[in-house]
User: Fold this.
Amino acid sequence: MIHQLRIYEIFESNKTAFHARFRDHAARIMARHGFQIVATWETASAGRTEFAYILAWPDAETKLQRWKSFMADPEWIEIKRLTAIEHGDLVGAIEDRLLKPTDYSPALTR
Assistant:
């Protein structure tokens, strides 16, 4: 099992639209492509609002293939197009990190 941390810069002016799109569409479509969302958060850093979430994957190859299929999903492409027309850009900078547990991580001892 590997974990992926995603952090999106989101904008105060259309934050509600971002959360609606993720909650009502992205999460549902991700599930259809085999994504396992562990948790989601809203946070702030360096004066910007951020949305962070963790995904669990069985291995790196699965992660790559499922991201590829999600990004090519026609429904997701159309939802992104429509929300951009209505609200503008919903996401700024994106950070993507693969989390590697330390040998003393509590997650490994459970």
In short: Strands lie at 2-10, 36-45, 48-57, 94-99. Helices lie at 15-32, 60-71, 74-87, 106-109.
